[in-house]
Amino acid sequence: MLTKHQFLKAYCEVSNIASLTTGEWNSLVRILRERSLLASYYHRLRQYGQTHLVPPACTDAFLSSINFASAQAMQTKIQGRKLTALFSAHQVPFIFLKGAAYILGEKSNSLGRLMTDIDICVERKYIEKAEHILINSGWSFKDMDEHDDKYYRKWSHEIPPLQHSEDGVVLDVHHTLIPPIKGRILDIERLVKSSKIADDSCPVPSIEWMVLHSALHLIINEDVENGLRDLTDIYLLLTNASPQKTLETEKLFVQEGFENEWSIVVNLLRYFFNFPIATHQNQPKTSKLTAMRCYVLKSALLPTSSYLPIRYLWLWKSINYVVGYLSKMPLSILIKQASYKSYRQIVKVIFGDYFFRKSKQQKSEL
Using 50, 70 and 90 to split pLDDT, how confident is the model at 362? Predict the structure, then answer.
């Protein structure tokens, strides 16, 4: 097992790893594999010239993760070309997001970066057209009941996830970056126009928008099990950006109304990676609520693992779960949604999943 201090030093700063025993290396490998960070960490070890410190017993695990990540990157590039050609043929402007954007744009954090789906974004006015194009091109919505479908379409920032019948790829189509129900609206037209054309003409966001999206995914979210990966993305993107780019990133956060989120990012990067970044202010303004959220995230972002015992980690993650939900959803809707989900879960335990799907099937037959 590893202590919190050992993990932060080894993973975030890539330091003190020479003192790790084989057993501690084994714990580190298991923790990173559970959070899909193994391949990207090995690339960072290469960058620092530290791969010779990896014990032989752990080498195969690292190399296996590298091969898997390379295969996934190749598949992402193939799907990127297909989607770009499809939307270009129908004159629908769009842009890739997150993992797909990092890989297609060959960003510094793309090496070993794993993902579970491909994310794209189109403006709200094109969403119905985009959905129609995808359905007619072999994509279909993943199985879900009427309530979940309504949740996506009424309250979420994306339509229900799609899956290709032949390729088996999952696609998330966004029309904004955070649920609009909270009233925080981003300039998505500006996001799409920030497009930098990558290889094969695949549109990816500017560095500033990449950092903003990753930060929002990290902070305005109840689930931070992959939050350390988001913070690592931000760290690597800004590490390889010029000071001017960093200042432009801060400017974008402020213009889009996320100055508090920028303050949280600055503090988290300093805490986890010992990485001070250039800002227009020596110390970003921090409200009490922002300071509290940052304090909670410093603990909640740590991986949940039996190989990393951290006292009260469950408590910090529970607090963050509630605060994260409230940051993207009004309390009244949160209570309504939580109550209904609890009711549905109880019914499913008693009667099975088919109980809710049956009414949907009968309705379609009318």
Answer: very low
